[in-house]
Amino acid sequence: MKKAILGIIAITAAMLASPAIAQSRDTSANWLVRARAVHIDPSDKSSPVAGSGAADRIGVESRTIPELDIAYFFTPHFAAELVLTWPQKHEVYLDGQAIGTFRHLPPTLLAQYHFTPDSTVSPYVGLGLNWTTFSKNRLLDGQGSLEHDSIGLAAQAGIDFKLDRNWSLNVDVKKVRLRSDVLIGGVKASKVKVDPVLFGAGIGYRF
After folding, report:
1. Could you tell me the pTM of the whole model?
2. What is the mean pLDDT of the chain?
3. So what's the pLDDT on residue 20?
4. What would the mean pLDDT of 71-76 be, rounded to a whole number?
5. Which of 12, 24, 114, 183 is the most exposed place for a label (fewest CB within 10 A)?
6. How far apart are CA 142 and CA 185, in angstroms?
7. Domains of the chain, each with CATH number or no CATH
8. Cα torsion at 178, 182, 188, 190 (round to 10°)?
9. What is the 3-state secondary structure (H, E, C) of 62-80?
10. What is the bridge-based pairing of β-strands 197-206 and 167-176?
11. What angle do CA 187, 189, 190 make, to 5 degrees?
């Protein structure tokens, strides 16, 4: 995934060398919709199971998912972005062995600042909140589950590479605070700090 992002940057840089791309972005358009492929890389931190033994025994599967982002620009510099996908399935591991799966839905709302909105290369940063809801917990043959909801901060940095007045390529990275209690028989057995880093690349359309 990281190699793919670097490849997109290199291809875009070559395209931007053409005079045909040297027109201004349409910053009068308020809406920007992006479709991205995003790789989720969890931190895999956890407290000792049942309060004893080693920490970090519980892990969550890394995977690549589709993502849809809808941004609204209040001014050329300031925007709000809603990050969406559909429920995603992940494996859970204990000491490297699969112990079940869960699904999560992680919408995120970010306030963004775009440094050079009129430029061909437009970097930005964002800060906001993530709300993740867990469902279809199937851990330890039904004996285990995750806490239902997690709310935490999300931070973002990215770059838009303009292709013309409407279309652009995008790369970004997000860090999300995502944590959950692990329950066994309804009793808290551990706390998992998923806290993933998300590497994304995709295409956007502004209108």
Report:
1. 0.81
2. 86
3. 41
4. 97
5. 24
6. 9
7. 2-206 (2.40.160.20)
8. -80
9. CEEEEEEEEEEECCCCEEE
10. antiparallel
11. 135
